[in-house]
Hints:
By secondary structure, chain A is an alpha/beta fold. Chain A has helices spanning 2-17, 24-28, 36-48, 53-69, 76-92, 103-117, 123-126, 150-163, 180-191, 204-218, 235-252, 269-280, 299-307, 328-335, 342-352, and strands spanning 31-33, 73-75, 138-143, 168-173, 194-196, 222-227, 257-263, 283-289, 311-315, 323-325.
Amino acid sequence: xxxxxLGRFRQGxxxxxxxxVGKLSNLFGGRIRLDEDTLDQIEExxxxxxMGVKSSVAITQNIEKRLKEEGGxxxxxxxxxxxxxxxxxxxxxxxxxxxxxxxxxxxxxxxxxxxxxGKRNDVAAExxxxxxxxxxxxxxxxxxxxxxxxxxxxxxxxxxxxxxGKNVLLAAADTFRAAAVDQLVIWSERIGVDCxxxxxxxxxxxxxxxxxxxxxxxxxxxxIVDTAGRLHTKSNLMDELGKMxxxxxxxxxxxxxxxxxxxGNTGQxxxxxANVFAETIPVEGLILTKLDGTSKGGIVVAIAETLGLPVxxxxxxxxxxxxxxxxxxxxxxxxxxxxxxxxxxxxxDSQDR
Amino acid sequence: xxxxxxxRLDATMKKLSGADRLTEENxxxxxxxxxxxxxxxxxxxxxxxxLVADIREKALGTDVLGSLTPAQTVVKIVNxxxxxxxxxxxxxxNLGEAGQKEMSTVMVMGLQGSGKTTFCGKLAKxxxxxxxxxxxxxxxxxxxxxxxxxEVIAESVGVPVHVDRERKNAAQIVKLGQRRAKDxxxxxxIVDTAGRLHIDDTLMxxxxxxxKMVSMDEKLLVLDAMTGQEAVNIASEFADQVGFDGAVLTKLDGDARGGAxxxxxxxxxxxxxxxxxxxxxEDLEVFHPDRMASRILGMGDMMTLIEQAExxxxxxxxxNMAERFASGQFNxxxxxxxxxxxxxxGPLKGVLKMLPGMNSDVLDKANVDDGQFAKVEAIINSMTxxxxxxxxxxxxxxxxxxxxxxxxxxxxxxKLLKQYRDMRSMMKKINSAGGLQEFxxxxxxxxxxx
Lengths: 353, 450
């Protein structure tokens, strides 16, 4: 499946290869000379993959060093090696280092405070004491801005986990967008997993609470929670997310495994998204979607570098099979596939199919 | 204006303070900063390159005017160039006059998740407001529950929708929808198509077929404002294969700079016509090139704020209140009204963000909390009308009652009352020191966009 995924990825890239200013070989004819123009062009190619100004500048500086070491001239292959190695390094070593601003405060100390005040809208969260043990189902908490592909990714994840023999339960906690619940229910029927739902407009935290109770009763292995898309700039909606995450923590005794879904077409705003989500709830990693187009998804390099968030899965199509575990090497190769010889790529494509 | 870019340029151009003319030498660093700013705003690197070259040409030999610094001069050139590029003026939809006999057709297309269905609802609502009779057609036969979503949205904006769960041919569905719309005497047909990748030949052909079967007056490409460098490929593929008359930029209520708008224009020559700015059905605005230029360059959006204020706030009430403020007679009832007006503008953070110089860093530090509003409102709501009108009435036992009623503490009630008294005495001082107008000018003077 991984090879198929790469093939699909490259197939997408092939489409725009001609229009892409790309191919280093065309630009520089085999060898690259060290001058400002050349470095500028390399930097532009990196920026063109949405890798962000900062990462692109850093990688370009590495190339400059490399070119100097090799006497002011180097082969394209060695330049590409530097770039791939850098990108791979950034993606492989990424470790979450953003700490949510209020998460710890809100855990134990916050709980007591809330109890005293008896906040009316926190009924679901208050109803049950946290279970001490860390047993019970894994909870995957899927978040992201609008339209990134959360619901579709959840269907794919559920399919993947079900094939691993896991008993999966979905929680339809996007109670805001019209027909979002229906969308998830249809997916759950197609995949053959259960889905816990309430009516539109109901409290998402209550849906989560119900789903966790159902998971305990049914002995589910994994609960995947769908949430409404929300722009990270809307603080009230981000607070709602914190509330849902706390419900999960209280009910299961541990933090949810939060995965942030990033659209592969996203530009520099992806950094801001990742930053704010990770400041609100503990985010473990990313799901990068829509890589079956011509987008390169380079923003995840910038996110991994500045925020330390690793990519865990990549989505590449509309069927439930189109989700793969993220592989930094493969990603780095595909990211610059259209810079190298197109012959080689076409061969790889035909092998894939 | 353009504080962020100006600040960055000021730093690089410090050394040439005193220069009276922009030369190749002294603008080099500045143009690098301009390029970075554009790239960080997701302007396509090719477009940014061309733009910087144009700006260099314009800048060279330009005199630095007496009142401007060299940095400000460069920024002015950048801004002028951006506004010119973005189209100068807001572009209209090709729908003809409201109330005409002929039915117009609009096709809405774009990638998955760009916000097509929501936009269709917003557009329908806007057209109804203009006195038209739109009908929606659900032509997304692929995504699970996409039809349901459009149905729910159509119902919420109160327009008819044509759905067909049997047919698996989008073009046919649209054709039948058109017939039904004519029968129902509708004057605009809005076609919600499935999300598709610009490289998916099968689905791109489907759009061509729909366009062939029902000729479209307005083809709109919906583009997520957060789109990065890909915007160029997306826009040019849609332009080449299906063609479009204008773009719609969605999710502009986030903090994306929206450089993608520039890319679309530069590469396809099609203007951005409308922008989506929120999740509510009325959150659709006409595209303003000058505001977009400001946004891309990291300047706040004062014009939008002012317009929102005009549209959503009750102007008479506001004026009335201003008078009472000026006379130092205002009481807690006015205070309450003021909070209500403020809330109509949306979350405070969003309002503040539109002010120049307010970026997310500043706002995070400022710790803006809408919850404070709610608390203050609760306290005032727990007072009797008499107490609101004459806050001096409120003694110790009344304070206790108010605190209990509002779920706050006596000290919070005290704090509010103290703020009120401080404000009242401040207003009195201003009045004696030369009037509210002058005070207003002092406060606003630093925030004027131009």
